[in-house]
Amino acid sequence: MTQEHFLNNVFGKTDMTKEEKAIAISKFKQVTFEKNSFLLEEGKTANHYWFIQSGFIRSYVIDTEGNDITTNFYSVGDIVIDWPSFFLRNPTRENIQALSDCVCWQLDFETFQELFHSIRNFREQGRTTLVGSYFALKRHSISMIADQAKDRYLRLVKEKPHVVQNVSLKHIATFLGITDTSLSRIRKEIASE
Amino acid sequence: MTQEHFLNNVFGKTDMTKEEKAIAISKFKQVTFEKNSFLLEEGKTANHYWFIQSGFIRSYVIDTEGNDITTNFYSVGDIVIDWPSFFLRNPTRENIQALSDCVCWQLDFETFQELFHSIRNFREQGRTTLVGSYFALKRHSISMIADQAKDRYLRLVKEKPHVVQNVSLKHIATFLGITDTSLSRIRKEIASE
DNA sequence: AATAAAACTTGCCATATGACAAGAAAAACT
DNA sequence: AGTTTTTCTTGTCATATGGCAAGTTTTATT
C-alpha cells in the first residue's frame, strides 16, 4: 500500500475530487527550513506560502519603538502565509521565522493562480482557509479587549498546547500583548492553584 | 448624460470590463435601513452583504461579561459584511446595526457565488477586498498591543475622521479597547495641547 | 567539562487605565 | 417648551500590567 501524501490530510475535508487533489498536490514542492531561518522578511513581497509538515514557526513585526511583537504561531498542518503581501503583491511588514527545523510544502503565487482560477473547489477551499484565518484573527483581537491577560493565556494553552510547550515565554508574551515578566507571574499564579 | 451608478465608484479600480461591471452591478438591490435597525443579529447566518451609499453602521459583539464591544465602523463606500458567517455559512456572534438612516446596495450569497465563479475579475476583486479587510484587522490588532490608547485614538481620527465626528464616544471607546471615561480624558488632554 | 548566552523568575516601584458615582450637557421625545 | 433619556465629563480610588534590575536556571557553544 502506497504511503499517503501529507497534503492529503490538509485537503482532507474539501469538496475537491481525488483527481483535483492530486493535481493540486503535485504542484507543491517540499522544502526545509533550519531553526532561526526566515521564510519571509520585512520589506520583501511574499511569493510563496507553505503547509507545515513538522516544526514550529512564528510571524512577528517590529513596532515603532523597536519592539518585537509576535503576530502568530504555526505548527503541523497549519498554512503559513502572509495574506496581504501574497495577494496584494506588496512588500510586507512582517517577518516569518522558523522556531525549529521545519519541513514544509511550498507553492508559489503563479501556480496558485492557475489552480485558483481553473479548479472551482480549489478556490472554494482557498477562500475558506482565508476566512478561517480572518476569523481566528478577529477572535484574538476581541480577546485582547474583552479578556484579562491570564484568560488570554489560558485560552492559548487550550487552543495551542503544543505551541505553549515549545515556544519561549517572551514570544508567547508579546503574542498575548504583555511582557515576559507579567507572563512569568501569571504562570506562577496558575501553577499555585 | 446618464447618471453613473453608485457602485461604479466602488468597483472603480478593478480589472473588470465595463460589461462585467454592468452585469455585477445589475445584481445588487438598493435597500434602506432606519437608524438603530439591524442588518445582522447574533445567532443568525449572514446571507447578504452591502455597500454603503450613505450613513453609518457599526458591528459589535457582546462579550462573556455582557459588555458591548464595537468591532468595526462602516461608512460611505465601505463593504459591510460578516466574512466568516457569510462564507462559512455559520451563525454569527456579531451584530451589525445602523447608526443612522442608511442607503445600501445588497447582494445575497447565491448570487455572489454565481458571479464569483463565472467572472474571473469579480473573484479577483472579491479576494482583494477580503484581504484588505484582513489587513485592516491585523493593523488594528497590532495597534492594540503596540500603541497607547491615545495613539490608537489619534490614528482613528486620522483614518476615519467622519466616523469620529458622527459616532458616540462610548462606541469609539470600546472599539479602541478602553472605557468611555478614559476616552473622554484622552480627548480632554488632546484638546489642551 | 567549562564557559557563554539565553531564558526565566522575582522584587520594588511606576503608570495607564478601570470602576463607580455624581453632575453637566446635549439630544430625543411628548 | 418641558421632560426624559442619553451622552459626556470629572473626581476619587483601585488594579492590572509595565519598567528595570538582580538573580537563577537552562540551553547552546567551544
Question: Overview of this structure, please?
Answer:
Two copies of one chain form a homodimer. Chain A is α+β, with helices and mostly antiparallel strands and 193 residues long. Chain A has two domains: 7-140, Jelly Rolls, CATH 2.60.120.10; 147-193. In chain A, 49% of the residues lie in helices and 21% in strands. The first copy, chain A, has nine helices and eight strands. Chain A has helices at 7-10, 18-27, 83-88, 109-118, 120-146, 149-159, 161-166, 169-176, 180-191, and strands at 29-33, 38-40, 48-54, 57-62, 68-74, 79-80, 95-98, 102-108. In chain A, the strands form two sheets. In chain A, strands 1-8-3-6 form a four-stranded antiparallel β-sheet. Chain A has a four-stranded antiparallel β-sheet with strand order 2-7-4-5. In chain A, α4 crosses α5 and α8 packs across α9 (180-191). The first copy, chain A, is globular. The mean pLDDT of chain A is 95. The A-B interface holds A 61, 63-65, 67, 69, 71, 83-84, 87-88, 117, 120, 123, 127-128, 130-135, 137-138, 140-142, 144-147, 174, 177 and B 61, 63-65, 67, 69, 71, 83-84, 87-88, 117, 120, 123, 127-128, 130-135, 137-138, 140-142, 144-147, 174, 177. Chain B binds a DNA duplex (30 and 30 nucleotides) through residues 148-149, 168-170, 178-185, 187-188. Chains A, B: This is cAMP-binding protein. Chains A, B: It comes from Mongoliitalea lutea. Chains A, B: Residues 15-116 form the Cyclic nucleotide-binding domain. Chains A, B: GO terms for molecular function: DNA-binding transcription factor activity.
